[in-house]
Fold this protein.
Amino acid sequence: MRLHEYQSKEIFANHQIPVPRGRLASSPEDAKLIAEELNRPVVLKAQVLVGGRGKSGGIRLVKSPGEASDEASKILGSKIKEIPVRRLLVEEAVNIQQEIYIGMTIDRDSASTLLIASGEGGVDIEEIAKMCPEKIARVCVDPLLGLKDYQARNLAAEIELPRPLWRSFISIIKGLYQSYQELDATLAEINPLVITADGRLIALDGKMIIDDNALFRHPDLVEKRDLSAEAPEEIEAHKFSLEYIKLPGDIGCLVNGAGLAMATMDIIQHNGGQPANFLDIGGGASAEKVAAALRIILQDPQVKTVLINIFGGITRCDEVAIGIKKILDQIKTDIPFIIRLVGTNEKEGREILASANLETADTLQEAAEKAVQKSLEYAP
Amino acid sequence: MSILVNTETRLLVQGITGHEGGFHAVQMLKYGTNIVAGVTPGKGGEWVLNGKIPVFDSVQTAAEFTGADASIIFVPARFAGDAILEAADADIKLIVCITEGLPVKEMLQIKRAISHKDVRLIGPNSPGIISPPFTKVGIIPGSITKPGNVGVVSRSGTLTYEVVYALKQADIGTSTCVGIGGDPIVGTDFIDILSHFEGDSQTDVVVMIGEIGGSEEEKAAAYVANHMTKPVIGFIAGQAAPPNKRMGHAGAIIEGGVGTAESKITALKNAGIQVAHYPEEIPELIKKL
């Protein structure tokens, strides 16, 4: 689960990381009021969970409370990459002398947390990582010992941070690591961490991603989950614990297991078709879950054919068949279905669907061929 | 011969009185696996599976009384990390964790904590191990495999079923099939299993099924090129997947160019591994060897 910038900054502030003064605004009047309180130039920052806000006009520097109100009314209600802006973070503007990057995430190779820092932070950090990897300092943190002072010091030295700032830098790195640990984050990032004209370090932007598997330890965060910032079909999928990702093609896919779902998409493409989505119903799905999944697929206007590929292990084919039948009784559709059921209770599943007059397939290759064929023939 | 498990394996089931644990314990027993004990804290002293299997409160006592040397874990995600450490502490040599959804940082700690012990962890989020026709320590349906000379190692669950089933349909059998688990941090990697297959007299060919993300397949490819004499057939799921949902800059900085299907397939091919385009092509490639 991704946190908003303002949420990350609240957490940072609680861990002794300096952040600019400011508050959240949901109307132009709020924005004006906050600008008046701060009594200096402010920055308005759209709170949406997509990258590239600055380049899409979601970040504005304004000189007066009046201007804050005008600009806020333009940004609020506008859309950034299809997501409506409902809230702004209004913060004091900071005089920037240098931008630094610090971040930490799970490194699969070393099976530990990897800390990364660079003296050249800001929006183009990934370019720097690609073009000049030597400008990125890295350190692995032992999962049992945690972050040690010397490791933070080494990062400061390696990015050639001026010595008077080391103390503050080490405290910030430690605060970020604590935030990352306490919230079960898989990513915590300050980009940029800036050196101000008057020689202080301030976290100007922050990002945190919380491990979904650890959310049971953080009920307060789940309550604050901002679904408005996510796509509607993904919210619906989330409600039924389905993994759904919309894709540009026209063959809707319903599969059990992420690996098999990807392999099903691959074989569609191999046969000249394009998948309309990735959808994993997980293991042991109920008929209700299958029905919910199909409803999401059929709501997609691009879908011209539905391919259902179930390899029953924990998942029972008869349960899946009941879900399919339920939806076909509820929703009248002429979209062709190709169904392949193999494994646990496959025979019972096929019997349930026999009356529904649906196209079936024995092998994955046959299912993909048929689905691509049907999607080409289909004319609504 | 098989790898990791055989008919001598003395298995205990952690979470045997639960829904999943109970169901799969019956399946494993029917298949021929030598289950010697179950563990459910608070239910020690009960007998399950028609009174055949004793239940203990702890892994330690179960191991002492029954000589169990392997454990399979079905307990819910929030208790699974504890279950793994309990088994490792009781010196259980092989621990197979079926449970999915363990917090990744807990796995970092577990992996580090057991690294200096003589313990092998398979998983979490693994379908387990099957060595037809008599031994399965996991949830892979026995009916979709047959005994043979092909070793299978995979990061997936149902995709693994698809592959062993396709092999069986083509009248090709499996020596041992190992699901190493689909999580970012797992106990045992491809290379470990590949080296076991290289040394296994029953295995003549190895099938390796990977997925996008991480760099395990790239590392395994280098291992195959330098250390394996047996032919390896590969498959990578996720060729049609859009670029990974981005994990912020830090993930992109670390992984750089690796982790995509393209990078993995190239690495496999450069290592002399034949790569199938889709699962059902795997038996065709094996027959051409």
In short: The longest helix of chain A spans residues 166-182.
